[in-house]
UniProtKB/TrEMBL annotation:
Chief location bin: membrane
UniProt GO molecular function: fimbrial usher porin activity
Keywords from the UniProt entry: Cell outer membrane, Fimbrium biogenesis, Membrane, Signal, Transmembrane, Transmembrane beta strand, Transport
Name of the featured protein: Outer membrane usher protein
Pfam families: PapC_C, PapC_N, Usher
Recorded topology in the membrane: Multi-pass membrane protein
Domain of life: Bacteria
SUPFAM superfamilies hit by this protein: FimD N-terminal domain-like (SSF141729)
Length: 846
């Protein structure tokens, strides 16, 4: 057989081994695992048939005893790469069997009743596979995978993107710093005043085992010029806390400063501990409702969502409707929304994070427990010691019973309610809460609050009531937050009376029309009503040769603290070019009416922009907005000009830094303090990795972080082979992980990076290594297989690098690459192979 020619260089090194076995297919005596496979080498066109080493192909699945890093594949699902041991059984000292340790068996997801019947060998360190009838194990060193076939009846429930707790990964120790920074500058043209603002929030943290240590921060800097203007500057550590998952309970334990999370009692800030059933640990179809915030920005604007003074989310949006869905579903209670336009005007409103009816699966109990003391922003105690607990018990397929109690000295409350699955008619829940509060100024106040909620998806009508609810509170009913405020300020304010809320969407598929309505109505005993109504309607249609036109209408009415604000946004757009669109829109509010024409274009999967020009009663306007999802940050920038009024610019950055003993990297990040995956590309830089969103490339040290990983979901990351550099190869390109909340996962890709070139290897006596010998780099990666006359096609070579040549199961000699490599791969390298001092068996030779 002639050596590989340059025309054959498109083939990977490993393909040569496959070709050899395939070519000998008719001349191979097949054998069971552990038995030797014999080849008829007479069919090979070789000058020296005695100088052949096919030992790596001569064993039918046999793996020599030892420890090997391998990915464990259970049926079609992968566990992280980990050490896998192969041992010789006591009955056959020359044999080899995989030794599944108790730790590895614990990751298989076996049902509890199956674990009880397992038997072991090697002093209880290795699983006897025969104790699980039908289970099979097969190792493959060429791709580093241990294949386990386990009957599905033995395994706990899994789905396409969810795995049982036994397979969850707590990640590795590390540090993280996530940030969300917004900068704005504005100049008033009429009187020359100008100013800038800088705001930000984020999380610093450390991971140690299953524990997550976190500190949340937020800051704001305001600088204004002009008479009577004051500057503002503050930095606050808003919260110090630690948490971890308790897998056996399906719950999250939190220590430190937190906000009360309860299905029946309102939220308030406290210092102490809590233990809550975590819906995120449930399969996706059993999880709860995550809140979302909708509105209309009159111009490029900054949207800030906070709760009790703590910033939960802040971003910059383009003019027009916005819909924010990135809020953690653990947040409950009222949210304060602030929309700051670029002309300095501000919209404010509140939204209630109402949840769907509190139903629980039959036989299951969900619970939330908390105890501590209310605290303020200076981290000081601000109320009496309290204890809270609530529960929901799934009585049967139709009924759930829920309730709870809160005791805090002079304040006590109790709640009881039921939920009913109405099947085709949806789900309904009703509860009553009784409170009793003792205040020095008001004496004893006792009252009740009644709540009714409903949820239904009408599949046959393509419509859904996401949530509909009504709540009535008597005058003397008090929430814990109201009690704390009255105790602190000696006054009763914001005393809630009635609340209506509904969210509804409907699809009219025949008309290509969709509609969405959200309404919230809140009345008080001691202040004006708050109302929020938002409506959006959109339709896709064709007119003659113009295809896929879109017409949308968004409107809102907001009454907040006695101030009414109405607005409307109408837009017509049609595709233009391959990725762009042109549009006309008009914005109407109480101050002005604006008409704009705009152009939107998507440059690639990372970058998009839009340009607008318009006119209004106040004058002409120009604006632009660009968004870029970079490797190290999400960047949004905007600029606006209003003739005779103002000019402004804005910039927002969202990103983070993650550092571990395995490496560190800067990265973009959407949710601060969230779960992430550190990918090691074997030291190879500029390797594209796909995870959540567009691919990101490894840094100069071969590290890349995929952020915004969903906790308790099976998430995948892969090398984007289509964008891989020509001189880089990946022997494995896909990995997956199911990470606990806040974890820093770690996965390693075996990557060979460097030039490719033909070479001829010569031994010290002038002879050549045998046909089939393998060449390996310092990472023990195969980089070539020796052909006739010592010729070999090498990949991943670097100047001055040392490689070993292996045959007969041993490292026989070493080659040294020259300090200056040829510029063209058409040149053959002559590489002398020097003998090594030892000829011990290599760790993964078979």
């Amino acid at each position: 057989m002639a050596y590989l020619s340059p025309a054959s260089r498109v083939f990977r090194v490993r393909l040569l081994g496959i070709f050899i076995v395939a070519a000998l297919g008719g001349e191979v005596i097949f054998a069971q695992a552990g038995e030797e496979v014999q080849f008829n080498t007479d069919i090979l066109d070789l000058k020296d048939r005695e100088n052949i080493d096919l030992s790596q192909f001569s064993q039918g699945g046999f793996i020599m005893p030892g420890t090997y890093p391998m990915v464990v594949r259970i049926n079609e699902q992968d566990l992280p790469e980990q050490p896998v041991v192969f041992r010789a059984p006591d009955s056959d000292p020359k044999g080899s069997l995989v030794c599944l340790s108790p730790e590895l068996v614990g990751q298989l997801g076996l049902k509890p009743e199956m674990l009880e019947g397992l038997t072991w060998w090697h002093d209880g360190q290795c699983l006897d596979l025969s104790s699980l009838k039908g289970m099979e194990a097969r190792g493959n060193l060429s791709n580093g995978v241990l294949y386990l076939s386990i009957p599905q009846a033995y395994l706990e429930y899994t789905s396409d993107n969810w795995e049982p707790p036994s397979r969850w990964d707590d990640g590795i120790p590390g540090l993280l710093l996530d940030y969300n920074v917004n900068a704005q500058t504005r100049r008033q043209q009429s009187h020359g005043d100008k100013g800038y603002s800088l705001s930000g929030n984020g999380t610093m943290g450390a991971n140690l085992g299953a524990w997550r240590l976190r500190a949340d921060w937020q800051t704001r800097l305001e600088h204004q010029t002009g008479q009577g203007q004051r500057n503002q500057q503050n930095w606050e550590w808003s919260r110090y806390y630690a948490y971890r998952a308790i897998r056996s309970l399906g719950a999250r334990l939190t220590l430190g400063e937190d906000y009360l999370s309860s299905e029946v009692f309102d939220s308030f800030r406290f210092s102490g501990l809590s233990l809550n059933s975590d819906d995120n640990m449930l399969p996706p179809n059993l999880r709860g409702y995550a809140p979302e915030v909708t509105g209309i920005a009159r111009s490029n604007a900054k949207v800030t969502i906070s709760q009790q003074g703590r910033v939960l989310y802040e971003t910059q949006v383009a003019s027009g409707p916005f819909r924010i869905q990135d809020i953690n579903n653990a947040v409950n209670g009222k949210l304060d929304v602030r929309v700051e336009e670029q002309d300095g005007t501000v919209q404010k409103f509140q939204m209630d994070t109402a949840s769907v009816p509190y139903l629980t699966r039959p036989g299951r109990v969900r619970y939330k427990l908390a105890s501590g003391k209310p605290s303020d922003w200076q981290h000081r105690s601000d109320g009496p010691l309290f204890a809270m607990g609530d529960f929901s018990w799934g009585i049967n397929n139709g009924w759930s019973l829920y309730g709870g109690g809160l005791a805090a000295g002079d304040y006590n409350a109790a709640s009881i309610g039921f939920g009913r699955d109405l099947l085709v008619f949806g789900a309904l829940a009703f509860d009553v809460t009784q409170s009793r509060a003792v205040l020095d100024r008001y004496g004893t106040l006792s009252g009740r609050s009644y709540r009714l909620s409903y949820s239904k998806t009408f599949d046959e009508y393509d419509s859904q009531v996401t949530f509909a609810g009504y709540r009535f509170s008597e005058r003397n009913f008090m929430r814990m937050g109201e009690f704390l405020a009255a105790r602190r300020d000696s006054s009763l304010l914001n005393h809630s009376k009635e609340m209506y809320t509904v969210s509804f969407n409907k699809q009219f598929r025949d008309l290509g029309l969709s509609a969405y309505v959200d309404y919230q109505h809140q009345t008080y005993w001691d202040r004006p009503v708050n109302d929020r109504l938002s409506l959006s309607v959109s339709r896709y249609f064709d007119i003659g040769e113009f295809r896929n036109l879109s017409l949308s209408l968004s409107a809102y009415r907001n009454t907040y603290n006695g101030v009414r604000d109405d607005g409307m946004y109408l837009s017509l757009s049609m595709p233009f070019g391959s990725n762009g669109s042109v549009s006309y829109n008009t914005t109407v509010n109480r101050n002005d009416t604006t008409h704009r024409v705009g152009y939107y274009d998507r440059v690639d999967d990372r970058t998009n922009y839009q340009l607008n020009a318009g006119t209004a009663h106040s004058g002409e306007s120009l604006s632009g907005y660009i968004s870029h999802r970079g490797d190290v940050a999400q960047v949004n920038a905007n600029a606006s000009y209003q003739a005779g009024q103002y000019s402004s610019m804005g910039l927002s950055l969202q990103g983070g830094a993650t550092a571990t003993l395995e490496g560190a990297a800067l990265h973009r990040s959407g949710m601060t303090g969230g779960t992430r995956l550190l990918i090691d590309t074997d030291g190879a830089p500029n390797v594209p990795v796909r995870g959540y969103g567009p691919s990101v490339r490894s840094n100069a040290f071969g590290k890349v972080v995929v952020a915004d990983i969903s906790s308790y979901y099976r998430s995948k990351a892969s090398i984007d082979l289509d964008k891989l550099d020509e001189n880089t190869e990946a022997t494995n390109s896909v990995t997956q992980a199911t990470l606990t909340e806040g974890a820093i996962g770690y996965r390693h890709f075996e990557v060979i990076s460097g030039m490719k070139a033909m070479a001829v290897i010569r031994l010290a006596d002038g002879s050549t290594p045998p046909f089939g010998a393998t060449v390996r780099n310092s990472k023990d990666q195969d980089t070539g297989i020796v052909n006739e006359d010592g010729s070999v096609y090498l990949s991943g070579i670097k100047a001055g690098q040392m490689m070993s040549v292996n045959w007969d199961g041993r490292r026989q000699c070493e080659i040294s690459l020259p300090e200056t490599l040829p510029q063209s791969d058409q040149t053959n390298l002559l590489l002398p192979c020097s003998a090594v001092a030892t000829t011990e068996k290599t760790g993964n030779e078979s």
